[in-house]
Amino acid sequence: MKEESNVSHGTGSADSSAKQSAPSSLGLIGFDSFHFVVENLERSRHFYTDVLDFKEVARAGNDLVTRSGQQSIVFGAGEARVCVSTPLAQKSKAARYLRRHPAGVMSLGFRVKNLDQAIQFLEVRGGTFLSDPIEEKDDRGGSYRSIEIATPLGDVAFRFVERNDFSAFAPGFVDSGHGNAVRPENMFGIAGIDHVTSNGLTMQPIIAWYRDVLGMVPFWEISFHTNDVAQGRDTGSGLRSIVMWDPGSGVKFATNEPLRPFFRDSQITKFVDDNAGNGVQHVAFAVDRIIPTVEELKRRGVRFMATHPAYYRDLPGRLEKLGIHNVKEELAELERLGILVDGSHDRYMLQIFMQEAATLYDESRAGPFFYEIIQRAGDKGFGFGNFRALFESIERAQKAEADKGGQ
Ligand SMILES: [Fe+2]
Fold it and tell me: Which residue intervals define the domain VOC in the entry (predicted)?
């Protein structure tokens, strides 16, 4: 910890008293919402309401639309809130974002217990505020206060929100009829955001920022390279990932960076290229029952990342090795739908990834972001074991094919 020096942080005496009484935590409660910027708002409305069964809970009121130069609609399922904006004027934040990136996440919002505490905590730790706090009261006595800070994720801001019975989604927003304050039912059982994963070309500045500014601690880390499984190839791909978390609230962030050799071929490098910088790669929604969810989403036209059949041939043996004997779901069903399994010692999770938006819509401006659907049965991990399992399965299947051909 740096002692008082010639370096001045803000106003001298106020600063030292702030240090003495610095709060011990940011006071996070959990995710509040995230803010997505798109070129085609109608397509997003169709995706969230008709496909994912989110309810349209709020939209920007006329004054806010005029002032901000952008139209925004808020979609909700359980506690998950996605605010989707599209620019109407070149001066808007959404237009600025889209001049620099394809569609993607412009800010992540978190609920805090007390905004003053959060501000004080961030101030002492060198957080960079983007503006003064926003404060608003409604006519029923509710209040909303928030502050935004810059992050090492390029143009992604973090927003901290203290809500006290505030009826609207945010100042300037009006309800669309489904009521933002309630928990909208979702036919898939989407209850909230499970985790958020970001990508960067080098993750140390991002991890250090989570630690030093937000006060988070390491939860887990892993690296995987296809070369670990198959040496001597002239192509390959790898990544390194660290998960940081806030133990008080359970908020978790995974951060990925590319791993050499073939650094430029890593899917993480490709994301950073396609996104024109660091950014949020995916958001995972937790569901109660992944099988009927995926079945219905497929019926509604959602395409998921394909899984090689060899993964399922190896799956019984892999589950045995992991000590998982209690998978309730039929493995044949998981295979039919392409759902992945990971975990250990009778704690498992089921996961599947949608194709990235640019692929789903066959349009590069739709961006490299994608959603994950996850069902947890005890396991708290992120399914990183699946990277290796998928690649090993394919390697084994290809080798078996080659051996058969040679006989
Ligand atoms: Fe994930």
Answer: 30-163, 192-355
